[in-house]
Amino acid sequence: MLARMPPARDPASADSRPVATRRVWRIARAGSLSRLRLIEEPLPPPAEGEVQVAVQAVGLNFADVFACLGLYSATPRGAFVPGLESAGVVTAVGPGETRWRPGDAVMVLTRFGGYATALNASRDTLWPMPSGWDYAAAAAYPVQALTAWYGLVALGGARRDAIVLVQSAAGGVGLQALAALRSLGARPVAIVGREEKRRFLIERHGLPPAAVLLRDRHYAASLDAALAHYGAPGFDLVFDAVYGAAFTPAFERLAPEGRYVLYGAAEFMDTGARPNPLRLAWRYLRRPRPDPLAMISVNRGLLAFNLIWLWGEVQRLPAAMRSTLELIPEPPHVGAAFAFDDAPQAMRVLQAGGTTGKVILRC
Ligand SMILES: NC(=O)c1ccc[n+]([C@@H]2O[C@H](COP(=O)([O-])OP(=O)(O)OC[C@H]3O[C@@H](n4cnc5c(N)ncnc54)[C@H](OP(=O)(O)O)[C@@H]3O)[C@@H](O)[C@H]2O)c1
Prior knowledge:
The protein is α/β, with parallel strands linked by helices. The chain has helices at residues 62-69, 135-140, 142-155, 172-184, 195-203, 219-230, 247-251, 277-285, 292-298, 308-311, 317-327, 343-351; strands spanning 21-27, 36-42, 50-59, 85-93, 105-109, 118-122, 126-128, 163-166, 187-192, 212-214, 235-240, 254-262, 301-304, 334-339, 358-362. The structure holds NADP nicotinamide-adenine-dinucleotide phosphate (NAP).
């Protein structure tokens, strides 16, 4: 099992002495990013089953913004610290712990609580940092790579030569999805919202221009042109976390036996610090509602998932992470790094929809 592999030792000689205080970004209640406060607080020694980690880098996810705005169903009630992943060095272990020891460099999954300079995490949601990686890459990896593996392979059944549409292909999950498809030998059609991201995918990731499309008013015609480029009748798989107006043109172009894997609704995101309820209600009421009966006659399927569900299936996580690392062994592309103290600014940049790859905080 991956979690029993010998962990990498701290690669950057981070301090591995136990930590007694930490700083966290806490929000008193969801609703607005402006409610985030940087707080210093004591950190108790790790309890049984816990491992203390001095965090060196925190991975940001679009879900963190949704959670702080109150648009994420898994958001805790009341005050919480956002953050689903980080990387750092083990500084102390709970009573009886034998798997981890101070000095181990680790990747950490948390069900919230990740925006912290130190934390006590469950011993079961840590992984050894792959050798040769730095903390930024390690903090950038778990959520987005697991999402790509789970959506494309575990649910989507992606395989060699499959034609796969990837929405937001230059984003954090998107680049991991492209890496996974490269590994599988599948053929991606990448969709992005801005021309500069299109150029980034062609110039930096070597995708053929005919297979990198803008989600603009020519979107439907561009999908047809990309399918013609591959000589394919339709998409074998669509991997989409945008939803909204982009959904139906892609859904209608699924090949028979094609699967549409929906895992988010970025189109519901507003650019303001707090959501606009009227605009949100309007988008919600106008959302696409595919008819399951109509799917029978055309042999197409729709699947949806929230990865955070897997946090509760802790016994499945080691195998899931092992499969993910086999499929996507390269360190991810970190597109932007901010200081820990600038977390709200980093979240606003992510929220604005212009970032490529992963956004991280350095502690
Ligand atoms: N279900 C799950 O378990 C799960 C897990 C991880 C992530 N997700 C979802 O997957 C998506 C990607 O996550 P990520 O963390 O890797 O983020 P990301 O792709 O780095 O950033 C989100 C992207 O969404 C696109 N977008 C579309 N409409 C938008 C709008 N109205 N405002 C802002 N951005 C908009 C933008 O790219 P383009 O304009 O280029 O499309 C933006 O860059 C998110 O929707 C996230 O919620 C779901």
